[in-house]
Design goal:
This protein has 16 helices and 18 strands. It is of the alpha/beta class. It has 2 domains: 240 residues, Rossmann fold (3-Layer(aba) Sandwich), CATH 3.40.50; 182 residues, Molybdenum Cofactor Biosythetic Enzyme, Chain A (3-Layer(aba) Sandwich). The radius of gyration is 21 Å and the shape is globular. Belongs to the four-carbon acid sugar kinase family.
Length: 451
């Protein structure tokens, strides 16, 4: 048995799947259909345990996003009928409910069965109570992010799902904490037999998610998981999910060279992370104006910016590059700006030993420009900050991905320390040193403001 994770952006695919890599499972993140099919073939041959597919659907129309999710399961699930797949399905959703997740779940439900909806990620301050998501104790609908992007719309899970035609019910784990997994599974099964399409799980902590994870493993009815990285981590920690013969992760490949930190997110969280990275390392920073990126192919300053990015990297110096902001900025142009930024960087990728990419669109654009279609996950710096390498072992580049409005203030600095520590360990030629360096790179976490 293997696992298919269907995510709508790259950083989400990685931060959801990293728990399985941490648990010692060979885990691949695919950026496209061809790479996903190749990974599925490897899974069928027993070489890969977990496939995380980025459908790149967060900014699509809901109907198009739904079509991509359903097609991914039809092609990669090995499905003969509802509940008879050769692998399990995990629909990764954003813990603050961004994107087209409702349409995607509605499209998958007739194919995969009962949707166990549990977006809580307690390690990052996201919990669910009475069908409502809370971010560090604040209802999601009252946060600045929700108001900026979804003003006037409900942030409650039940009406969102029911508007898509799904019959829902709430499942309060707290009231069932004393039940063993088999009795919890019976309670889940009763909802499925009653015709419920989506069961919304209240979860306050990791223990709640662990209970749900264990109960679903003994559930006989057709179902699939819908959640963030929180539930995925609890599933990954259960050895019975795959058995004892699941393929182990690949060995990391290293090289010497500069580290590029590429930031496409304009969130205050990313801004604080950049500030601490500059303060602690003293590395140079380039802020590329949006006006240049909007017309990168014809703008008269494009060549100057491309050269400015390349010079320090060619000299072996680390560099921070991020997208600026102006009065004309529109959040909907994020994909275009990220793609343009990646085009400026692409000629210099050959110099890099490490790439830290913040923002799923930015990471995907950069990897696509560099011709990298899939990643093998290795480890993580802190929750949601995943370390990987290209599946093609010819390119010895270590990649760190992180969602924009995510992580502690130390996230980027911790990622940089992690990559530098791995290079130092390689020079010393000692795996013990590598483990110590990776451990030392875990900077203390601080609470980050939501943005």
């Amino acid at each position: 048995m293997s696992m298919l994770i269907v995510a709508d952006d790259l950083s989400g695919a990685a931060d959801c799947a990293i728990g399985f890599a941490n648990a010692g499972r060979h885990t691949v993140v695919a950026l496209g259909a061809d790479e996903a099919v190749e990974a599925a073939n490897d899974a069928a041959a027993g070489r890969v345990a977990v496939i995380a597919l980025d459908t790149d659907s967060r900014r699509l129309a809901p109907a198009d996003a739904a079509s991509r999710a359903a097609q991914a399961w039809r092609v990669l699930g090995g499905t003969q009928g509802v509940g008879t797949s050769q692998r399990r399905l995990y629909k990764k959703i954003d813990s603050t409910l961004r994107g087209n997740w409702v349409a995607e779940v509605a499209a998958l439900q007739p194919l995969a069965g009962l949707a166990i909806v549990a977006p809580a990620f307690p390690a990052t301050g996201r919990t669910v109570r009475e069908g409502r998501v809370f971010v560090r104790g604040v209802p999601l609908g009252e946060t600045e992010t929700w108001q900026l992007e979804h003003a006037g719309k409900t942030a409650d899970l039940q009406p969102m799902l029911e508007e898509a035609g799904l019959r829902t019910a709430l499942f309060d784990v707290e009231r069932m904490r004393d039940l063993p997994p088999d009795l919890l599974a019976q309670a889940l099964a009763e909802h499925a037999r009653a015709g419920v399409h989506a069961l919304i799980v209240d979860a306050q902590n990791e223990a709640d998610l662990n209970l749900i994870a264990r109960a679903t493993l003994v559930l006989h009815e057709a179902f699939f998981w819908v959640g963030s990285g929180g539930l995925a981590r609890e599933l990954a920690a259960l050895p019975e999910l795959f058995g004892n013969d699941a393929p182990a992760p690949v060995a990391p490949l290293r090289r010497e060279g500069p580290i590029l930190t590429l930031v496409g997110s304009l969130s205050a969280v990313s801004g604080a992370q950049c500030a601490l990275l500059r303060e602690r390392t003293g590395m140079a920073e380039l802020v590329v104006p949006p006006a240049v990126l909007r017309k990168v192919e014809s703008h008269p300053e494009s060549a100057q910016w491309r050269a400015a990015i390349g010079a320090p990297l060619a000299a072996g110096r680390d560099l921070l590059v991020r997208i600026g902001r102006d009065d004309a900025f529109d959040p909907s142009e994020g994909t275009h700006l990220s793609t343009a930024l990646a085009a400026l960087v692409e000629p210099h990728v050959g110099h890099l030993a490490g790439l830290i990419a913040t923002g799923g669109e930015t990471a995907r654009a950069m990897l696509s420009q560099a011709g990298i279609g899939s990643l093998e996950l290795l480890s993580e710096v802190e929750p949601g900050v995943a370390v990987a390498q290209p599946s093609d072992d010819v390119r010895r580049l270590t990649v760190v991905t992180k969602a924009g409005a995510f992580g502690s203030d130390h996230a980027l600095y911790g990622a940089w320390l992690h990559l530098r520590g791995l290079q130092e360990a390689t020079r010393n030629g000692s795996q013990a040193d590598s483990r110590r360096a990776a451990h030392a790179s875990r900077a203390p976490e601080t609470n980050s403001p939501l943005n």
